[in-house]
Design brief:
- The structure is a single chain.
- By secondary structure, this protein is α/β, with parallel strands linked by helices.
- Helices cover 43% and strands 13% of the residues.
- The chain is built from 13 helices and 10 strands.
- β6, α8 and β7 form a beta-alpha-beta unit.
- The chain starts with a helix and ends with a helix.
Length: 319
């Protein structure tokens, strides 16, 4: 969980609560007024049921749907209907369901659950996503990236849904650029095609594995382009991070990014591998204008202090 978007979302909630002056605890051993659950483990379900029995309101954060479970781990597509049933069972324990986007809300409403569903972004701490030129220089040198090299990165679990196969194919077709994918997934959970992709022997492609939040902070600003090739998201925290870092960004044109992000105004959007390649060359050859300032303005609407106030209102509503 710590290495996933859900883990990052939990960190963001804690920052948002601090900004709003709301005390919280990470254990139910202390007295609390509301329980806010982000995970869908059996223990999560049990805690929610126990809280309801004790008269404590339950806020359940719906980060996952059947759609984004697909194309993730080995056998995920076969298990997706079962996963969807379990997600719904967990979410229905709530007095209030929170979800990060209008798109994920639409998917959840198809399940016709009884608890009300409200949209709240995972938020972003704008002040954090900055780095110095020295930090960027050291970071690139550590990875063997020369000053004159154009560096393209992506951040996420090494799963098909995140677009890792397209990332590898782009590295094959564009040997003039350096490609690095940051993130790790246990190989036992990966399909053969993903394992083979990760093991590709290309001089311009690296898979360093998982890096901590501090290194990710530098990575966004040390790169020349951030690719978000994901096929399905409920929001995509890494996109918020990239835009807050003022990284040139291309995303896949999927429903979750509409209408929030306007193509060629806030970000560049691509529908195919050829589109990604065309836009990548256009941005790195400076034939297309940079959108980093408008992207930053867009993500500023999701700043962490604003999310803190929204959480406060939602907690008060269930109380």
């Amino acid at each position: 969980i710590n290495q996933s978007g859900v883990g990052r979302a939990i960190e963001h909630q804690q920052m948002a609560l601090k900004s709003a002056g709301i005390p919280y605890t990470l254990t139910d051993e202390k007295t609390h007024d509301v329980i806010h659950i982000n995970t869908v483990f059996p223990s999560s379900y049990i805690r929610a049921k126990r809280a309801k029995k004790n008269g404590i309101p339950v806020v359940y954060h719906a980060h996952s749907t059947e759609n984004d479970f697909k194309n993730s781990f080995f056998f995920a597509n076969a298990l997706a209907p079962l996963a969807g049933w379990w997600f719904k069972k967990c979410y229905e324990t709530a007095d209030l369901i929170l979800t990060p986007s209008e798109y994920s809300k639409m998917l959840l409403e198809e399940w016709q659950m009884k608890p009300p569903i409200k949209v709240i972004s995972n938020g972003i701490d704008l002040s954090y996503w900055q780095s110095t030129l020295d930090e960027q220089k050291i970071f690139r040198e550590k990875l063997g990236i020369q000053a004159e090299d154009k560096l393209i990165i992506s951040v996420g679990l090494q799963i098909k849904r995140k677009g890792i196969l397209d990332f590898v194919e782009m590295a094959k077709r564009m040997p003039e650029y350096q490609f690095i994918w940051f993130g790790y997934t246990d190989p036992k959970l990966l399909s053969r095609e993903i394992k083979e992709a990760i093991q590709s022997d290309l001089p311009n492609l690296q898979f360093p594995g998982y890096i901590d939040r501090n290194e990710v902070r530098i990575a966004y600003q040390a790169c020349d382009l951030y690719l978000f090739l994901t096929h399905e998201e409920t929001e995509g925290i890494v996109l918020l991070e990239a835009l807050a870092s003022k990284a040139n960004t291309i995303v896949r044109d999927i429903p979750v990014f509409n209408p929030d992000y306007i193509d060629r105004k806030d970000v560049y959007k691509a529908n195919s591998l050829d589109d990604f390649i065309h836009l990548t060359r256009g941005i790195l050859d400076e034939k297309l204008p940079s959108l980093v300032d408008t992207g930053y303005q867009k993500v500023s609407e999701k700043r962490i202090d604003k999310i803190g106030q929204q959480l406060k209102e939602h907690y008060q509503s269930v109380l």
